[in-house]
What we know:
Layout: H1 2-40, H2 49-59, H3 67-88, H4 98-105, H5 112-123
Amino acid sequence: MMCAAVALCASSAAAQQSRSAAASDRIVARQCEVDLRARCDVTARGQDRDSIRTCIKQQFGSLAEECRPWLARLARINKACAADIKQNCAGERAGRGRIEACLRSALGKLSDACKDGLARTVSGAR
């Protein structure tokens, strides 16, 4: 019984910490989005992903300090989950967490490589 209570408390604490991290992540994402819009015009019609990616690479050193790790994490997820994104989220526009939400909703269909990449990213491992 004691083990179950400890596990439940640990699970509850982890969930609360996860919610706090997610809220913090959303704040950083908004700040980075503003920074990226100003530097790379990521919302321009006709702007393809390759040109946006090129601009981000060129501007990476000038982006706000908190944006760099956030973008690096997104790049790791994109690399690990590229095939899963194409297969499960092809109709989703990038930005505002839409791809992340799509991946979460398709969790049962994701490849092991994508799940592993997501787990490493969430845990902070490289």
